[in-house]
Structure prediction request, 128 residues.
Amino acid sequence: QVQLVESGGGLVQAGGSLRLSCAASGLTFSRFAMAWFRQAPGKEREFVAAISWSGLSTYYADFAKGRFTGSRDNAKNTVYLQMNSLEPEDTAVYYCAAARAYTSEYVAGPTADEYEYWGQGTQVTVSS
Prediction:
């Protein structure tokens, strides 16, 4: 049974930082490209960042560039999202997702349909 479990969310003031983690189990983690999405109240789920199974290739939404950094530790079956300079507009539930990959540098795209497994999400709230 595949499980993706996010953690690290919380309440932070604008300008602050958070580091989200997503621990995976039940899959060969090093053969999956990973990504982060988010969903704010009343809005559709949107892509945030993606990372290849090697961790060397990444892809970010425009709003995340320069503020968010994705990384992974395949030995720990964990993917991370470091978020800096947070803004109230970043308030959302953040989800990690896994897409089966066949090359080490494959980075899945921004479409939710590309991802096979999803976590339950972690709430991030940024106060002004």
About this structure: The first strand starts at residue 3 and ends at 7. The mean pLDDT is 96. Residues 62 and 73 are 24 Å apart (CA to CA).
